[in-house]
């Protein structure tokens, strides 16, 4: 089955949570040189490396009926074809008792019916927030509200923006504001980081260049659980978020 096929046709929502993901980063994300692993392959080889498929699926150790127990999720959807699966993803999150709010980019809206999405979750869109740049406090409250940040799919455009802190829409502002690492509260006490899970989708003629690898490794170095490609079913995506919230490797 091709990546994202089940998302496109709505099949397999309740399949066993087995993921066919592949990291392209080093086992130790701190083993970096100028933001890129010292042993990173050249661009042509990197493209082949990204398309490798694991020999066997990864066991996610997910309970038979995962319960998010009211955990709060921000789902950011950017402009890549797998965005058409966002409605099914929201439905699976809700099925397992997660609260979810969705942030969509303008270029993602061509892949799904926003009216149907609004039936599953509250939706933030730039078209509704004309003066979103003046609503930084609302974005801060949204980030504080959430227990986990999920970006699925993450386009190369937004991966580049997020990795260097650029902002030109609500989605990138939310991602820039997210506490990837420990931070201090107003009294000087450390607040632990919150999990972030990103699923990168490479589309069209894009090549995996060294610049793209740099952005990928930068996010990974922040502590983001970043995956190459969308999972085959919404259930597999939800499984990765569940594991991130519970500190399970996978």
Automatic annotation (TrEMBL):
Q: What top-level branch of life does the organism fall under?
A: Eukaryota
**Gene Ontology CC, one term:** phosphopantothenoylcysteine decarboxylase complex
One GO biological process term is:
coenzyme A biosynthetic process
Q: What are the protein's UniProt keywords?
A: Coenzyme A biosynthesis, Decarboxylase, Flavoprotein, FMN, Growth regulation, Lyase
Listed GO MF terms: FMN binding; phosphopantothenoylcysteine decarboxylase activity
Do you know which InterPro entries this protein is assigned to? Flavin_trans-like (IPR036551), Flavoprotein (IPR003382)
- What are the residue boundaries of the Flavoprotein domain, all occurrences included? 71-174
Q: What is its EC number?
A: 4.1.1.36
Q: In which pathway does it act?
A: Cofactor biosynthesis; coenzyme A biosynthesis; CoA from (R)-pantothenate: step 3/5
Asked if Lyase is a keyword of the record, the answer is yes
Q: Which Pfam families match?
A: Flavoprotein
Top-level class of the enzyme under EC nomenclature: lyase
Its required cofactor(s), as named, are: FMN
Similarity comment: Belongs to the HFCD (homooligomeric flavin containing Cys decarboxylase) superfamily.
Q: Which PANTHER family match?
A: HOMO-OLIGOMERIC FLAVIN CONTAINING CYS DECARBOXYLASE FAMILY, PHOSPHOPANTOTHENOYLCYSTEINE DECARBOXYLASE
Protein name as it appears in the record: phosphopantothenoylcysteine decarboxylase
What is the source species?
Answer: Striga asiatica
């Amino acid at each position: 089955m091709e990546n994202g096929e089940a998302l496109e046709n709505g099949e397999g929502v309740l399949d066993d949570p087995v993921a066919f993901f592949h990291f392209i980063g080093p086992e130790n994300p701190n083993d970096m040189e100028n933001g890129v692993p010292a042993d990173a392959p050249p661009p042509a080889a990197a493209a082949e490396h990204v398309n490798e498929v694991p020999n066997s699926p990864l066991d996610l150790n997910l309970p038979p009926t995962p319960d998010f127990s009211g955990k709060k999720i921000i789902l950011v959807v950017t402009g890549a074809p797998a965005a058409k699966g966002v409605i099914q993803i929201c439905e699976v999150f809700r099925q397992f008792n997660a609260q979810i709010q969705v942030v969509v980019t303008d270029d993602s809206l061509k892949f799904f019916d926003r009216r149907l999405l609004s039936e599953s979750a509250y939706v933030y869109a730039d078209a509704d927030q004309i003066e979103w740049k003046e609503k930084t406090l609302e974005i801060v409250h949204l980030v504080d509200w959430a227990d986990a940040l999920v970006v699925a799919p993450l386009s190369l455009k937004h991966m580049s923006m997020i990795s260097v802190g650029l902002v030109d829409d609500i989605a990138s502002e939310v991602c820039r504001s997210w506490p990837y690492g420990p931070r201090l509260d107003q009294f000087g006490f450390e607040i632990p980081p919150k999990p972030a899970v990103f699923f990168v989708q490479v589309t069209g003629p894009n090549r995996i260049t060294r610049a793209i690898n740099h952005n990928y490794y930068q996010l990974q170095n922040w502590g983001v659980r970043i995956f190459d490609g969308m999972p085959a079913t919404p259930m597999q995506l939800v499984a990765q978020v569940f594991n991130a919230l519970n500190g399970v490797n996978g």
